[in-house]
Write a structure and sequence with these properties.
With 118 residues, the chain is of the alpha+beta class. 20% of the residues lie in helices and 20% in strands. Strands 1-2-3-5-4 form a five-stranded antiparallel sheet, covered by helices on one side. Strand 2 and strand 3 form a beta hairpin. It binds guanosine-5'-monophosphate and zinc ion. The site of zinc ion (ZN) has 6 residues, from helix 1.
């Protein structure tokens, strides 16, 4: 864990969050500034800066994040209607929080573009 990381603080319970799923490897909580009716952030319970910093030893986290997506999709009743997963990596993608996170967006038609404008 990293002391000055917002998401590490959420994992440690130092910053409150609206949790939707948790296991030994993963925490998922609602985004504070949702870009869709359902906007959930799924994060590893290990400080990894971004996709660019993933190591082979992190593969269990990657699998558990993907497993969590499926569990959450069923929980939120969007497994059939669908959802979009977005991972911003680095400056040009607009990654603001440097703790790897997967955005799960759902609850409306997302449009044809992969990007969204806010
Ligand atoms: P990024 O732009 O890094 O891909 O996404 C960061 C996301 O984290 C944004 O959608 C932002 O709204 C969300 N976020 C930032 N700080 C907090 C927080 O303290 N709590 C929650 N729940 N979400 C946060
Ligand atoms: Zn962190």
């Amino acid at each position: 864990m990293k002391d000055d990381c917002i998401f590490c603080k959420i994992i440690k319970g130092e910053i409150p969050s609206e949790k939707v799923y948790e296991d030994e490897y993963v925490l998922a909580f609602r985004d504070i500034n949702p870009a869709a009716p359902i906007h959930i952030l799924i994060i590893p319970k290990k400080h990894i800066d971004s996709l660019a910093c993933l190591e082979e030893e992190d593969k269990e986290y990657v699998w558990k994040i993907h497993e969590a997506m499926n569990i959450i999709a069923k929980q939120e009743i969007i497994a059939d209607s669908g959802y979009r997963i977005v991972v911003n990596c680095g400056k040009d993608a607009g990654q603001e929080v440097m703790h790897l996170h997967y955005h799960l967006l759902a609850g409306q038609k997302m449009g044809e573009k992969i990007i969204w404008n806010k």
